[in-house]
Records
---
Amino acid sequence: MTLSAFVCGSATLLGGCLAISDAIAPKVTFKQPARSAEASALRSVIILADSAEVSQQMSMGLESEMSKLRVDERPYYTTAKLGQRITAQPSDAQLSAMARSAGVDAVVVVTGGGSSVTATQSTEDRYSCAVNVKLFKSCPKDQSRTTKMACTTTLGSAAARVRIVRAVDARSVFVDVVNGQAKHYRCNDQDIPQADRRQIAYDAVVSATTATMQILAPSYVQGPLDLMKADAGLPAEVLKRFDAASEFAKAKRLDEACSRFEELYTDYKESTALTFNVAFCHEVRGDMLRANQAYKRASELANAPDAQIDRRLTLTEKALRENPAVFMPANPNAAATQAPAGKVAASGNGRRVALVIGNARYQRSALVNPVNDARLVGERLKRIGFDVVTLENLDSARFGAATRDFGARAKGAEIALFYYAGHALQADGENFLMPVDNAKMRTMEDVRDGGGVQLAAVVAQLDVAAPAVKLLVVDACRDNPLPSANRSLAGGGLAPVKQPPEGGLIAFATAPGRTAEDGTGKNSVFSKHFADQLMVANQTVEQLFKRVRAAVKSETKNRQEPTEISSLVGDVVLATSK
């Protein structure tokens, strides 16, 4: 038996080979998203606390941690300073006014702090032998002795109410009690100091401060390096470069390793190992959504059960369930302020983000073109300067996570653009975008209650994110995915949208109550012309959609007429001449 086989065979007592391999694998640093996406967008704050000792300790700890926090090797907070001690609970409006006066994004208020320390007695069994026993020999039963040893568990707890009020709209983006704990365990026969109750209480406060920071900002944790070995079928030169990238990772130069894996992946996208390793790089950077999508793609390429892929899929899916508003890195050089009305110009200097979704592989009533449409539109948006996330064939859980994540990415952006191609339905005047796991959706009630994504919810998330310009483009209503499906719904199409988002525009591939054509070629009629017009320089968004409407009407002989509803102020230009 080899040493590795012996270790893995013996590891069943410790929870299997995974526990052993994780323990000895090289460690890498994983970025963890902030638990509050809204709070994480606030980069300059004042910290207030009441007179409670724990509140004061936490506020000073927060100021210290914020001042030294670096994310992606850059300071995360531009301002983090302590304010005056408060004697009453100020209103949201008062705190917002205070933040605006100080020129910061928000006020963090820590109140009602308290701590406690408790001790619990227990015993542990100690085993001894009354006679000396040779190595590998067991003690005779009649010589075995068991004694009870007294032990003490000292547990410290600390808690305070944390409230975060945003300056721009006088709204509490987070309000909750945050807890921390510290533990000391000692048995009387152990050569360790007895518990210092005051130190344990302080350690619990530090734990509560750390928990608060994890709400406010991204953090980092250590985890095992978990890269996949190269596919056997890769060319020799590629294998050599693959191995070189792996060596950089083992040497804790993961940035260089990921850069090399991603360069190789550009030309070998059918490689399971490269797809997996690129996914791992996304995960390490805290980009759980892209990591999860890439792991799913690696699983498809493997075309067989794979424990390593399944392990990472489980971890990323758990992260998405627990914290859907996953942290996505913004362009650090981008302008973080909204452009004033009438000034959203063609300069392209502000941050522009886009979420592009194409759903085609439905469990019922699959479509042909949406994935092609999403890829085409996503590629064109990238070419004109957008930071684009393109996702395909989303089920209800991933669809919801994707839109919540987009809301987090859209904070502080100049332009946020949402594009969707796939099925959509209306129920009681509400428009629902359809995830691909629609097998059990047989009635409109199923759509409403069982996973359909409300277009209004996407609009609401963008309203909260408050980018300067909000653009939503819906290429849907292609047919009815419910039972007895046909090419047009009874009373078909989508419901009219009565009110566009403030500072925004919603465009539909066809008029309210009408259905859109899927197209006879690779792309839908609408997406083809929309993508073409995206590349036309120096036209406003309104001009763009007028030209799309004319082209679609002409090609469909007036059977399809795109529409839009707008509250834009000023000229918005997506593409500019070089």
---
Amino acid sequence: MENVTLKRKLSSYVSDKGYLKHVPDDILFEVLVAWENWTGSSKEFYATLGFTHAQMASLIGKAKRLKREGHFSDEDFKQIKISTEQNLNSEHATVTTSVCGAAELVLPGGKLIRFSNIDFLLDYLKKSA
């Protein structure tokens, strides 16, 4: 049913000669999302929208280019701010992380273990638990 509304939106941008002209970026994004979620063949996708491969190829190509250039915001992506240094203290150890992704684990007795990647720290903690 989603393609029916997309078909109606696209049909308003068809020229007298049958070309899709001046399609806005938000509709290009909808076309790209519908295309990426489509599980059938490309011919079936074009048929559900009521257009041919020649009509849709440039739209999908333009939408992919706009996505690569960052014109479409990713809804799943959420930027987080990380402080320059964060300390986690417990009675057994102190963990210090920095912006670069490295972490230091200070054990009782003054022992220090440095991890170049947070994933290594997590693996260490899982194995030692």
